[in-house]
Write a structure and sequence with these properties.
about 260 residues, alpha/beta, TIM Barrel, 2 domains, eight-stranded parallel barrel, binds 3-methyl-2-oxobutanoic acid, binds sodium ion, Pantoate_hydroxy_MeTrfase, pantothenate biosynthesis, metal-binding
């Protein structure tokens, strides 16, 4: 299958064919998602909370993003690879956004994602002018978890919904190629999906978005996170625990390694 490009996501929107994005942070999971036909891999700053043991993505560093972006980009061929700009690497202005965006592209990212609406319009313009395509991220924006007073659905009232739609149009006009909508009422996400020309990608944003994204350890049942918007398509925590228990038991009773695993 052909390499996924931004224009394929735009075609998918125009044809009404939803596409799928998953987070990925390492070689074998990224390869499994490529084999499964996942179109877009997001090296999210969620690597901080899913792999590195932090409790907030505000702890994820630019160096973390470079390391894991490189791992994923080296491991796959077909999916579009998107990497998050870490907290603190773009809020300070367009020059910082471009400097860090360039490094993510050097590490293998094909688009960079940043959180926010009107406030990051200059950053988006500068990145796009530098030849770096941008994915926006609106609704619940995890890097602002403290200002937003926790993980909460955004845009519930009419004013909030209007503001989200305005932000979506603003970042589209600044040049964003796609927009993640996180924790947004389904009706609001549907309206935004209709008013913007670029694809929307939902997480906890209902079925009308042009694409969907989940954190892979959530959808595979490894993290144990069961938010309302998450569906678990596997029970990797159980399977992995069983495998480790079995291994421990067989080592304890000397049934592993057997002759077939041993050298003469
Ligand atoms: O970092 C991440 O995993 C994300 C997705 C939840 C969209 O930004
Ligand atoms: Na993120």
């Amino acid at each position: 299958p052909a390499k996924v490009r931004i224009r394929h996501l735009h075609d998918a929107k125009d044809r009404g064919r939803p596409f799928s994005m998953l987070t990925a942070y390492d070689q074998f999971s990224a390869q499994a998602f490529e084999e499964a036909g996942i179109d877009v891999l997001l090296v999210g700053d969620s690597v901080g909370t899913t792999v590195l043991g932090h409790s907030s993505t505000t702890a994820t560093t630019h160096q973390d993003m470079l390391t894991f972006t490189g791992a994923v980009a080296r491991s796959v061929h077909r999916p579009l690879v998107v990497a998050d700009l870490a907290f603190g690497t773009y809020e300070t202005g367009p020059a910082d956004a471009v400097r860090h965006g360039v490094e993510l592209v050097r590490a293998g990212a094909e688009l960079v994602k940043l959180e926010g609406g009107h406030a990051v319009v200059p950053q988006i313009r500068a990145l796009v002018e530098a030849g770096i395509p941008v994915m926006g991220h609106l609704g619940f924006t995890p890097q602002s978890v403290n200002s937003l007073s926790g993980h909460r659905v955004q845009g519930r009232d009419a004013h909030g919904a209007d503001q989200l739609a305005e932000d979506a149009l603003a970042i589209q006009d600044a040049g964003a190629s796609a927009i993640v909508l996180e924790l947004v009422p389904a009706s609001v996400a549907a309206r935004i999906t209709e008013v913007v020309q670029v694809p929307t990608i939902g997480i906890g944003a209902g079925p009308a978005c042009d694409g969907q994204v989940l954190v892979w350890q959530d959808m595979a049942g490894l993290s144990g996170f069961h938010g309302k918007f998450v569906k678990t398509f596997a029970d990797l925590r159980r399977d992995l625990t069983h495998a480790a228990e079995q291994y421990r038991a067989e080592v304890g009773e000397r049934s592993y390694p057997g002759e077939e695993h041993s050298f003469e």
